Sequence to fold (436 residues):
Amino acid sequence: MTSPRDIIQKKRDRGTLTPEEIGRLIRGYMSSEIDDYHISAWLMAVYLNGMEITETVALTRAMLESGRGLNLSSIRTKKVDKHSTGGVGDKTSMIVAPIAAACGVTVPMITGRALGHTGGTLDKLESIPGFDPRPSPDRILAILKNTGAVIMGQTADLAPADRRIYALRDVTATVESIPLITASILSKKLAEDLDGLVLDVKTGSGAFMPTLETARDLARLLVDVSRKMKTKIVVLITDMEEPSGRAIGNALEIRECIDFLNGNAPEDLETISLALAAHMIRLGGRAKSFQQASRMAYEAVSKGAAARKFREILEAQGGDGRVVTNPDLLPRTRFIEKFRSARDGFVARCDAKLLGLASNALGAGRHRVDDIVHPEVGLYLERKTGDPVKRGDVLCQIHWNDESRLRIAMPLIEEAFEVRPRPPRRRPLIHAVLEG
Ligand code: URA
Fold:
């Protein structure tokens, strides 16, 4: 049998590994026959030399088969999930899951926690009193059958190889590899027993993929690998140069989602959320065309069905569904500071990464896995890129509790905003849509 050393050497020398070799590496790692140092060296070889599509498919399959995944075969309707590569103020999961479920799609949504400067859907949902992000497998099935959507954390059985390999990538500087990212995302998502997947690949300062070129490369590979794994996929490349919507921070973002579902949405968030939801509805077989699906998504919001569905989802997972009609039940800070413009002009920059870091500095995210998240803190953007401002106008509200944290956040906020005499050129919100 080929040794791990031989497999590493082959990749180091730019060879193409066979599915058997990749399967052996992953199975051996999971059974502790192969060590962290083997996988670390192999990851660096992959990072430097890349992988062929056959290798990426084999890696996705091997990681997917490292656990048991969900078995949703008893659910007759189509199962579709949405995943985002992560951004600042990126709250579309809590909007699209109820919209798609209200339109008859089953949504088994598995989601994560804050990572770096980006927020995590689970942390946001946990700002709702009582919400349980880890229902048991029986409960997941019951919720899906009765409610049509569940939003939960990754279970131990779901692609466990990805969790271990991701931790190694994190400490070996090998996260930013397009084939490794593709296999990581798809192994987890395909373990959900899906009929279709809608992926939101973010690009811009607040995204994992800062340039449009790398976002396109990732999107293309996601489409190609999903096609080979026989799962329908739509990938949207969306902008993350500035935060999505106006709220950044856990409870503030939930409040913005509730406002959205009650018919009061910022334009950028509406454009992206309705597009994502419409693709889910179409992949879920509930509409024949994107146009029809878009109308359905719009009506689910305007007629209140999506807000009612969100309440059902929260209550099915133990959360206090009254927040949907009374968002004041969400936690709030003791203090709100206003950050004002020093000059007249137009907002030329409202940098997503810096604002994400500022929100984290206030306590909304984690620097280490065991850090406590403060659900109530964050930022609310009163002005965004392109908006005219007068000297003294509020650019953003800072929701804070701890003065020492405010002192760290303040310079980041100052750097994030730039006001210039002329309006900047508008960036598109949706750069591209790819389908497989
Ligand atoms: N998200 C994932 O799930 N995996 C990656 O490797 C990167 C982003």
About this structure: The two ends are 36 Å apart (CA to CA). The first strand starts at residue 80 and ends at 84.
